[in-house]
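Budget justification, computational time. The allocation requested in the original proposal was used primarily to generate structure tokens for proteins on the priority list. As evidence of use, we reproduce two of the resulting records. The first is shown immediately below.
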Amino acid sequence: MCGCLDAARGTRDRVHSLLEAVLSVGRELDLEQALRSIVEAAAALVDAEYAALGVIGPDGRRLSAFHTVGVSEEQIAVIGPYPEGHGILGELIRHPEPLRLAKISEHPASYGFPAHHPPMNTFLGVPIRVRDQVFGNLYLTEKRGGAQFDEEDVSVTLTLAVAAGVAIDNARLYEESRLRERWLRANAEITHSLMSGSDRTEVLALIAERAGEITGSALAAVALPLQNTGSLAVEIAVGMDAEVHRGLVLPMDKSLMGLAFSGAAPVTSADVARDARISLEPPRFGGLGPAVAVPIGTGDAGPRGVVLLARKAGQPVFSARETEPLKAFAGQAAIAMELAERRQDAEEVAVLKDRDRIARDLHDLAIQRLFATGMTLQSTGRFIEHEEAAERVARAVDDLDETIKIIRSTIFGLRTRDGVGEAGLRARAVRVVGEAAPVLGFAPGVRMEGLLDTDVPREIADHVVPVLSEALTNIARHAHADRADVLLATDGREVRLSVTDNGVGITAGGRRSGLRNMAERAEQLGGRLELEKPETGGTRLVWRVPARKV
């Protein structure tokens, strides 16, 4: 009789514990905390020394996250990386049914344990389903007291797994609603920035910052196309190693941004630092892992640019649920660029109208009055008897005639739009590098900084382009290099061109005609040419001149 009462009390206590566990798990709205509560509740219910919850990744074959109980942080650090789903853990992924073992090592799928791993024998595993989809698995090992997991343990754990599925679903929904709210706030902030008249660069920087914050990205960047070059230039970069990315010129076919731009669709990478589709040069993704590139605008005119987001290595990959709001958010960037372009067009039209008005006033008022004054002086000169006075009046008439010519030339200049149809320095430089690539046998890395198309006048740009071409030609002929990097920058006061290679360096007694030409160009403009030897070997050529002709 006493045995029956003890059994009844034990069953009652276990049911009570199960209800407490279900309620505890159901109260959590934060997904990470909910997963932690599930593991802890499972370990307590079946009296297991160790417990873990493995989250199955998007590919359905590996674990993307692993939450443990019973193993200290120090032990985890010694053991090494979390398991990916081999051995017994993978058995549950392939066959999502309850699995109970008296000794793990005796199962055919046993994969063994890494060094320093605690010994484990007894095992109980059950799947967790969320809306009929397997979310992950509960793994329980080493029932205390040396006992075996029994059918009642399986039943209790399965019940907890059902409650866990509901809790995970609720936490996901809550997380999605909070995420949606953050995107809406960010969209409102960007719209306000647009309406307040912020320029394109400021708005794009704000878009990159907010996208990076919301998605938990370590790096956020925005690249725009360089006209008629088939390349993208990274205009904005914020976050981890941003200075390495800012100003880079990227090819369409060997960069994540280029693939997204040319395909007009998002492109994801599980590990951007080791993605075979992406060129390794220049090195720029150290410490980064999952990444996504989303085109800015995909209408009839095609993308206007690309947003890149990258997380630190080891963090979750970008899911489809994250990419969808990113596409809408990138649409905000397209609107920003559209408004900025329209605002710039309106300002240019206003300037042109003002120029026309000034030209018209000069022609209709100033020139006519000067001409009339000249005619009056010319006719008056006939009545002047004093020879010297007559000569002075004649010179004054000639001066008025020259003044009229100068004003007419000014009017013509006002009515001529500067630079129409001409390529900017950035595009010209990229074309030179592209033309040099077949001769070099590799594509040089290119970085551009500053307002090269607006702060560098045409006469300076006309020297920069042949100097860059000559520098790359010298590398192809003499350096025996397999890598070169080009930096073209201006701060508004100085233009600096730096070309670095990893070749044999400048040999003594070699021909110097090309270097002499580059040095003479620099001297003509009030600048100088410098040759340096980097610590890694090769040559660095630095050509710098004032941004305004002296």
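The second record produced under the same allocation is shown here.
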Amino acid sequence: MPSAPGVLRIGNASGFYGDRFDALREMLTGGPLDVLTGDYLAELTMLILGRDRMKNPDAGYAKTFLRQLEEGLGLAHERGVRIVANAGGLNPAGLATAVRELAGRVGVPVRVAHVEGDDLLTGDPPARGTGTGTGTETGTWGEGVLTANAYLGGAGIAACLRAGADVVITGRVTDAALVTGPAMARFGWDPETPEGRHALAGAVVAGHVLECGTQATGGNYSFFTRHDIRRPGFPLAEIHADGSAVITKHPGTGGVVDVGTVTAQLLYETGGARYAGPDVTARLDTVRLAQDGPDRVRITGVRGEPPPPALKAGLTRIGGWRNEVVFVLTGLDIDAKARLVREQVEDALAKRRPAEVRWELARTDHPDAGTEETASALLRLVVRDSDPEAVGRAVGAAAVELALASYPGFHVSAPPGNGAPYGVFEAVYLDAADVTHMAVLPDGRRVTVPHPVRTRALEPVPETAEPLPDPLPAGLPTRRAPLGLVAGARSGDKGGDANVGVWARDEDGWRWLAHELTTERFRQLIPESRELTVVRHLLPNLRALNFTVEGLLGEGVAARHRFDPQAKALGEWLRARHLDIPEVLL
């Protein structure tokens, strides 16, 4: 059932490939919607789909989406809900054909369209722009590239919807495009005018809140103990003609929508105040949030600027081979046991040492423990090399042959394998004019979607552009306590960089946080970042700081460079670190 006139009600039913399978049905039956979206793509997902396509050229899309539609297609048709999903991955045309075939089998008359042009491997690759991408010669993507996809905006989706599509399948579009496209189709915003850009920027912000599904309704939330989030409902946005929106969820579903949960998602995997995309650059420092009733948060004030002239593209390739062995160290003399086995393995690998050898000792052991597991620590060995032989049998033999000749209680968590390939993600930038954004309408017509005419080079907003709040009075009594008692955090990955958003829950907390959590203090609290570039961004309207830690994740999530390869828990580690906190805040 469509929503009230003047309001576009857009829901989300997937935040990643593998999200809750029955969410699509829940969203279609839980309340009124105009459009239901699903985000199935991530940097790692593109690599997975690329390997699928190597095995079968007809593959390359999210198969679970098709299974979800076996029931959902009829429900959506009955309720007049349009479906927009990026589940097409590397093969949106193939998934669109499969949806038509499914519709014929189940007897549901739907019009299916798709968007293409993002896949840069299907033709001659365009020249790279002058962005941060580096590497191969102009006109080539380099050796071993599995996928190369530009991040398209929402205009192609809008064209499909205006042509009467009931289902729109895309490949690699920006996550927010799943919302900006339907909003552009509904309200007819002109992104070449200031008013149109501001409205479109509001839709970008709403799309960013929705894109990760239940992360906006209490999932992965720092203050989770204050709410029942055992089964959070999926979020939806009520978007108005001026681009303002209300984030909410269907009545009776679990979780919570409040200013905190929306703030956490707004900070997720973003950088500075300018949130750039192919449709518009949204100014996150203009976003204002207000509680609008139970499970309702209103977003207003968002300003937009012309998008940058370059389009971002993501490349994935096989970066090499990787192997891992976890040694279990139990009881006394943990450090000595770790030192012994490390020296033994290093000696065994001396003849053909892998290009990268990393050791990490996790002191999970407890003194006088009541179980063997809680008396044990874990010593993790990770090796990488371009040669599979260097990380395969030789590494396994170096570990296994010590079984009767090393520390007391020697064993490993699992038998060593032969090693496995790992992937690498690289962001590059292209001239938008070199990418053909194509809407393939329900009747088969192919319409080229123009890129924005007016653009603006992306420049960071310096921290000094925003005045710091007045600090708390000097000399207040303090107590040594975890940062997380007064601040929330959410963290994630952007290629090899980590992002950590930190926000205060009230104004006094913000006055302290803005002055206390400097980049220098961040480096002290997160020792891994001390030799890296750390950039702090100020978002006063959200009472928030956003930190980018460049290079913390090496070559990205697929390379599994560190214990937490996507930096998902980096923010929670930061919250667990102790500082001298004014007692008035505790």
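A brief technical remark on that second record: DSSP finds 14 helices and 26 strands in the chain.
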